[in-house]
Amino acid sequence: MDALLKYQDKTEFNTHDQHKKLGHQSSNVSYVVTFVSNNYGKRAIFTDLNGVTHKIESGITISEGGLLETNNQRVEVRASSGITFRLDKNSEFSIERTIAGVVPVYYGKVYIFGTSNNEFVDGGKYRTSCYNDIKRGINLLIMNICDNVDAYYGLDEEAVIYEYDESGKKFPLFISGELTVTELKKDKNTYMRNRYSVVKQREMTDLEINKIYSYFVNPVNWR
Asked: What pLDDT is recorded for position 152?
């Protein structure tokens, strides 16, 4: 029933990943909404795989094959694996069947941080670019800055950003360093190993650091 859904940019649901989806994949990770901001406009919604729309409230579990759209609200989703996703307004979140397994796929302004004691936990995929692994101490803010460029803001420990080639082999793209901004450009008309290129990598400014910490990290904004 995925064909019923489209992302906010009108592309069809679960078509961003051109690899063959592996039929035996499954996930025992649950994803639960733990915060929804006050409503000052269009409400956040979740459209399930049958096309039924639900109002987003704390305590709702995000099921595979549906699409969460935050619209004019901010939403926090916590995974039982030990990752928290903080979604800004006009962002998206879904659980999809990908080459990496059944993982979260997200878009917009998304802040991710790890709380698991495991060494690494699958951090899922930013829809218009790549995958990441998260562990305790890794904090990433990812956003789309134009049609074919995504920006990765690394706050603490280094994180490896990676993809899969047409044969399903995992390969690294870049390391998101501490207090570093990386801009990643995508050319969808080329093979996977040539599709992405780092166009800029620089230190974050004090203003950027303060804005991210005050807006995304400060727990007062997410309770």
From this structure: 97
Q: Which pLDDT tens digit goes with each residue over 131-175?
A: 998 877 789 999 999 989 999 999 988 899 999 999 999 999 999
DSSP the chain: -GGG-B-TTSPBTT-S--SPPPTT------EEEEEEPPPSSSPPEEE-TTS-EEE--TTPBPPBT-EEE-TTS-EEEEETTSEEEEE-TT-EEEEEEETTEEEEEEESSEEEEE--SSS-EEEEEETTS-EEEE-BT-EEEEEEEETTEEEEEE-SS-EEEEEE-TTS-EEEEEEE-TTEEEEEEE-TTS-HHHHEEEEEEEEPPHHHHHHHIIIII-GGGG-
Residues of the chain with pLDDT under 50: 1-3, 23-24
Q: For residue 181, give the amino acid letter.
A: V
